[in-house]
UniProtKB/TrEMBL annotation:
This is Uncharacterized protein. The keyword Membrane applies. It comes from the Bacteria. Keywords: Membrane, Transmembrane, Transmembrane helix. The chain crosses the membrane at residues 12-30.
Amino acid sequence: MKMEKKQGGYALLVVLLVMMFVMVTGVTIYTKINSDTQTRIQEERSAKMRYLAQAGVEEGIYRLHQALTEKKDLPVGPQTIEVSGKPVTYSVKTKGELYVVTAEVADGKGTTRIQAQVRISKTGTQQKLEILDYQRSVGP
C-alpha cells in the first residue's frame, strides 16, 4: 500500500511538470508569432510610406520636366497630391544648376522623406534629366 501512495505522488508531479512545459512552450510560441506579426506589420508600413514618398518625388520630377519643356513656371511652395488616399507633399527648389525635389508623407507613427537632386542638361533640342542623389530619411 505504501508504494501506491508514492507512485500517485510521482504521477501528480510528472503531470504538473508536463503541464508547465506545455504552458511555457505555448507562451513562447505565442510570443514569437506575435513578435513576427508586429515586425511584418512595421515592414509593410515602412514599405508603403517609402512608395508614397517615391510617388511624390516622381510627381515633382514630372512637374519639373513639364515646366521646363512647356516653359511654364515651377510650382511655388509645397504641393500636396493624393496617392492611394494618402496626402503626399512635394516641393521643387533650385540649387544652382541643380533642382532639389523633396517629398514627404506622414502617418500617425512617423514621417518618411525622400530628397532627390536632379540635373537637367540640354543637348541641341533634347533635354537629359539625371538624378544625381537620392536620400531617404525616416523620423518620428
